Amino acid sequence: MPEINLLRALPHIKRNIQKRSDAKDASVVTIAKKFGEMYFDGPREYGYGGYRYDGRWRPVARDVIVHFGLKAGMRVLDVGCAKGFLVKDLMQECPGLETFGVDISDYAIMHCEPESVGRLHLGTAERLPFPDASFDVVLSINTIHNLDRQGCIRALQEMSRIVRKPAQCFVQVDAFRSDDEKTLFESWCLTAVTYLRPAEWISLFREADYRGDYYWTILES
Ligand SMILES: C[S@@+](CC[C@H](N)C(=O)[O-])C[C@H]1O[C@@H](n2cnc3c(N)ncnc32)[C@H](O)[C@@H]1O
User: Do residues 102 and 81 lie in contact, with contact meaning Cβ atoms separated by under 8 Å?
Assistant: First the structure.
């Protein structure tokens, strides 16, 4: 089944959407889009408000392992890995798994988890610095929607290029199902450029010939 909620084990995050919306202006958005210290570890108005490891990705890692049948020796890439939390947790949950990450943020990579040191590469999802068919599974969570439509297509094509079997991918992207959800999302979002209804994403996936699994990040009131 291509649509699957692999992040179902993450705790529900309480967001103060009004506070974010009140603080948001062009300068806040410009700073957030640098994906630097302010975005990860600055005040909540600029992004995460402190992106710290707390183990919440461990059950997600377990679900990813079961879903893709991951085993020691297999190679997994997380595109938009940030500080490498999932990279670390996949290796801890499946000893011997060879897990790597790529991210556009040198700040995130320079502040990664000790277990992920040397496994995270600086680069963009649009041009992944890896050979064809070099990974068993490629994931990208809440990342490619930071690119424009053509960038999303290129990123999905890159994921398909570097994975051995095109179905062994997972992507999660920002989406909305109604005008209310779109308004709510626009009040909150700082960095997303492409956010669509699920059916529109599915048609973009087809355009990119993306054959992996997918799911949506949808803000609900
Ligand atoms: C919302 S965070 C998600 C981080 C992590 N995947 C997670 O779910 O916690 C978005 C991540 O995408 C990275 N990013 C943004 N644009 C990117 C690009 N063009 N290529 C690779 N990474 C990118 C950011 O630096 C950031 O780490």
Answer: yes
Ligand 1 near 146 CB (within 6 A): yes
Cα 156 from Cα 159, distance rounded (Å): 5
Q: Is ligand 1 within 6 A of the CB of residue 143? A: yes
Taking only Cα atoms into account, the Rg of the chain, rounded to an integer number of angstroms, comes to 17
Atom of ligand 1 nearest to the CA of 102: 21
Residue-wise pLDDT for 127-171, tens only, equals 999 999 999 999 999 999 999 999 999 999 999 999 999 999 999
Q: How far apart are CA 172 and CA 4, in angstroms?
A: 10
Residue 40 CB less than 6 A away from ligand 1 = no
Q: Does the predicted TM-score (pTM) go above 0.85?
A: yes
Instruction: Report whether residue 104 contacts ligand 1, using a CB cutoff of 6 Å.
Output: yes
Task: Measure CA 110 to chain center.
Answer: 18
Question: Are 6 and 63 a contacting pair, CB within 8 Å?
Answer: yes
Strands (E), the chain: 75-79, 98-103, 120-122, 137-141, 169-174, 213-217
Torsion of CA 156, 152, 198, 80, to 10 degrees: 70
Mutate to test the pocket of ligand 1, among 103, 150, 172, 216 (most ligand atoms within 8 A of CB): 103
Atom of ligand 1 nearest to the CA of 141: 6
